[in-house]
Write a structure and sequence with these properties.
The protein is of the alpha/beta class. Helix content is 45%, strand content 14%. It has 2 domains: 205 residues, Rossmann fold (3-Layer(aba) Sandwich), CATH 3.40.50.720; 42 residues, no CATH class. The two termini are 29 Å apart.
């Protein structure tokens, strides 16, 4: 299917691995010029080397919690590729975990600063040029946790609920300028982050890695009726659709990629 975005420019945060990198792959295959960004010290060089045969891709490092670095990375992308038409916010962390009464302010602030305020800072840079051009696509990564919170992950859940609200508000503010803002909400996708979660679970419970996944699905995610972790490319396909011309009448929507994990029809 032709996505109708050949020649567009995309910036993807949190894209040195996992869902962000797989989204970059699909966009490159669609003829989009892509800038990857993530914190220094990751696997950006490896990601660029892997993706470069597919099209024009660059890497720019920066920390979304630092306003100065956010401005600098956007400026570098503008100088090297041009003004992005597409922004995809995949940067995020699990953040502080544990009993609510034992998680301090620092844990909450760090989680919110990356997951929520990182998106806020990046969208401030993305949207003005999109409005001027009369065409823009923004996709923010939320999570099943946004509408189905888990008691050991409340800072993360709250940050992702805020992402849903942010995206809805932005969609109302700028949809009239043909800047469409939507979210995707994955659940338990095979990424380095969930690998680490399952390795920790396996060690704590004396299980193999595969057994850790199986028991986690049974005990913690009974709504995931496909009984497996999702694939990063399955989420990427949803994102690629939302930023395409095929989704030109979708604005302020949330697309779940969660194997049915969320039980409610609302939210």
């Amino acid at each position: 299917m032709d996505l109708g975005i050949e020649g567009r420019i995309a910036l993807i945060s949190g894209s040195d691995s996992g869902m962000g990198k797989e989204t970059a792959r699909l966009l490159l295959e669609a003829g989009v010029r892509v800038a990857l960004t993530d914190k220094p010290g990751g696997t950006m060089d490896e990601a660029v080397a892997e993706l470069a045969p597919l099209g024009e891709v660059i890497a720019v490092t920066g920390d979304v919690t630092r306003p100065g670095e956010v401005k600098a990375l956007w400026q570098e992308v503008r100088e090297r590729l041009g003004e992005p038409d597409i922004y995809i916010n995949a940067a995020g962390v699990t953040g502080a975990q544990g009993d609510f009464l034992e998680v301090g302010d620092d844990g909450w602030q760090e989680t919110l600063d990356i997951n929520l305020m990182g998106a806020v800072r990046m969208c401030r840079e993305a949207i003005p040029a999109m409005r001027r051009k009369g065409w823009g696509r923004v996709v923010l990564f939320a999570s099943e946790d946004a509408v189905q919170p888990y008691v050991e992950e409340l800072p993360y859940c709250a940050s992702k609920a805020a992402i849903l609200s942010l995206a809805k508000g932005l969609s109302k503010a700028y949809g009239g300028d043909n800047v469409l803002v939507n979210t995707v909400s994955p659940a338990f996708i095979a990424t380095p982050m969930t690998d680490a979660m399952m390795e920790k679970r396996a060690k704590e419970k004396g299980l193999s890695f595969d057994e850790a996944i199986e028991t986690f699905l049974d005990e913690e995610r009974p709504g995931m009726v496909l009984k497996r972790r999702g694939k990063a490319e399955e989420v990427a396909a949803a994102v690629a659709f939302l930023v395409s011309e095929r989704a030109s009448f979708i604005n302020g929507a949330g697309l779940r990629v969660d194997s049915g994990s969320v039980f409610t029809i609302a939210g």
